[in-house]
Amino acid sequence: MKVIRTQVGILGAGPAGLLLGQLLHRQGIDTVVVERQSRQHVETRIRAGVLEQGTADLLQRVGAGDRMLREGLRHHGIELRFLGQGHRIDFQELAGRAVTVYAQHEVIRDLIAARAAAGAPLFFDAGNTRITGLEDEPRIHFTNAGAPCEIACDYIAGCDGFHGISRTSIPPDALTIHEKVYPFGWLGILANARPASHELIYTHHKRGFALLSMRSPVVSRLYLQCAPDEDLEQWPDARIWEELQARFATRDGFRLEEGSITQKGVTAMRSFVAEPMRYHRLFLAGDAAHIVPPTGAKGLNLAAADVWLLSQAFADAYRTGGQDQLDRYSARALRRVWRVQQFSWWMTSLLHQGGGDAFDGRRQLAELDQVVNSRAAATLLAQNYTGLPFDEF
Ligand code: RFL
Ligand code: PHB
Asked: Model pTM?
């Protein structure tokens, strides 16, 4: 049996786990990352695309931001579209901040490369992961190419996403779960088509929500509201384009550029929080502890904000020998988590057709009217979308 000793054992090589590893490395704290999937899998998994300023800053700070600076698209606003008309929300003017459109799997590639350059251990393809000794002697058990391995550590960071084992290793009576499941999902596509706008367009339409995003000047990322269990078989490419064109249509004849669809998927939507985000020597971060619906583009950014706090708390514990910051981690992280939950729920309920009555539909339009015509309301959207400052919590 191979036993590896480290200070912080990290489960999961997603944005949370990899960024935490780099932040701790900069503080001189040793980590081992254990990931269930292959390197190829995590480096190509299509997911998020919008980075807040605070997330982009962290990537630069850990030496994984050069390619993002070169290839990421800086966006200074978004468009809200309803009743066939677009309205720009100017982030720069309202919040003094911008966002960067840069695919999550590119972030993962850059973080893995930075970790490799630092010579820090990362095990892919880990089998049968288990964690034990959370009260006093934490250990991560797994198999590596069939051989049993153990990581003996001071603390475990549970960064293994919503379907990981960290959260479910905590006794159920030690956690409170808050959950909201929405009666719709998103059908997302990647297409070789020039984005018809250089900024994201969030569209409220009576046929359902739609979103135009992008991955490069020649690749569009588009989403449309569908049933949570939508059957992709029912969506040949021509039907997808027809539906998207209908939802994005404006009174002055806007058309999306169409192109070959290279990827299609359906995502169900939920809001979820497990609290506290700690059980003795296990600390949860990112999707392992919480999920937001993707409408506010917040999942990855919330994971980054968690591990920023957690890295500071670990650094303080090793520097001072005290536990104060670790003891405060969950409450500090959860304050931001709930603010972001509120924003993500609000964006979602503002823009989707929720199966409500005619009153709800008119109320949504009144709220959209307010957001685009009241500077106070637009500022709130701009501040939340571009991200609450990391140091404010
Ligand atoms: P991840 O990315 O799920 O990473 C967890 C990692 O843990 C591994 N794992 C295990 N490893 C070892 N042992 C086990 N037993 C394990 N079980 C799991 C997994 O293989 C994985 O590699 O969680 P993390 O790091 O917390 O990061 C969270 C983000 O990935 C997530 O919140 C975002 O992708 C959400 N999201 C978006 N976030 C944004 O900030 N902006 C966006 O624009 C945005 N758009 C999106 C999104 C998520 C989407 N989907 C598919 C859910 C759009 C979509 C469609
Ligand atoms: C994306 O580009 O994948 C994306 C952008 C904005 C969102 C969600 C997803 O709100």
From this structure: 0.96
Those residues whose C-beta lies under 8 Å from the C-beta of residue 260, and which sit 6 or more positions away, are 191, 192, 237
**CB of 297 closer than 6 A to ligand 1?**
yes
Nearest CA to ligand 2 atom 2: 49
Helix ranges (H only) for the chain are 15-26, 39-44, 53-61, 66-71, 91-95, 104-117, 237-248, 299-320, 324-351, 358-373, 375-386
Q: Residue 239 burial by CB count (10 A; 0-12/13-18/19+): exposed, middle or buried?
A: exposed
Distance 261 CA to ligand 1 centre (A): 23
Write the CB contacts of 218 (distance below 8 Å, at least 6 apart in sequence).
192, 193, 194
Going 186 to 339 to 85 to 52, the CA torsion angle's sign is negative
Q: What does the alpha-carbon distance between residue 149 and residue 6 come to, in Å, rounded to a whole number? A: 13
Q: Output the six-digit token pair for 385.
A: 């979308």
Task: Determine whether 294 is an active site residue.
Answer: yes
Ligand with the closest atom to the CA of 73: 2
Does the annotation count 202 as an active-site position?
yes
75 is catalytic: yes
Ligand 2 atom closest to residue 297's alpha carbon, by position in its atom list: 10
Domain 2-75+98-178+270-353 CATH class label: alpha beta
Please confirm, yes or no, whether 298 is among the known catalytic residues.
Answer: yes
Task: Give tens-digit pLDDT for 228-256.
Answer: 999 999 999 999 999 999 999 999 999 99
Cα dihedral 125, 165, 318, 388 sign: positive
| Closest atom of ligand 2 relative to the 296 alpha carbon | 10
